[in-house]
Amino acid sequence: MIESVNQTQIDDYILQHIDEEGELLSALNRDAHVRLLYPRMIAGHLQGRLLKMFCRMMRPKRVLEIGTYTGYATICIAEGLDENALVYTVEINDEMQPFTMPYIENSPHRKKIRLFWGDVMDLLPTFDEQFDMVYIDGDKRDYIRYYDTVFPLLSSGALILADNTLWSGKVAANIPPADRQTQGILQFNEHIRLDRRVEKVIIPLRDGLTMIWKK
Fold it and tell me: Is the pTM of the predicted complex or chain greater than 0.70?
């Protein structure tokens, strides 16, 4: 009889058989769990390696990240970029600066990172860039607004990655309208489902990661 295993055991096995996250990201991860109220919001080891792999395969010249938070995903994206490529990352919560800036500055890939503090809606017009890849991980209530605003700035064949699109399973539950974060994700998922300009798939990785390919 085969012994049953739980999800934690499977997760541990996966992490033991993929590339290591490295000392800097490992320290960031530990620091987040000590100092931050919501440490599970960071991309983490598995998703970080996946973001790097997407960049390795697609070789985007310009990447936009909406929602820097600790900079974990930012550093992973920068790792996978060619030397002449850039990731523009925007974080609206400037109280994260004391935590995030030292890790960005100590990354060996810092020259590929352009970090901005403020509302991405205000900053986007100042970038004057066309993006090949976008990683959306900001306010869940604004996912549709992010998507619709950035879409005209994407090259054909661009990849959009939207994080937290399963939202702890709440998308399949009976959620009251007052839960605006969950309603935001539900509306975004439906918005993407109906958009014929793209191909899309939801990966049940961690809290849900939607891959959206611009035709």
Answer: yes
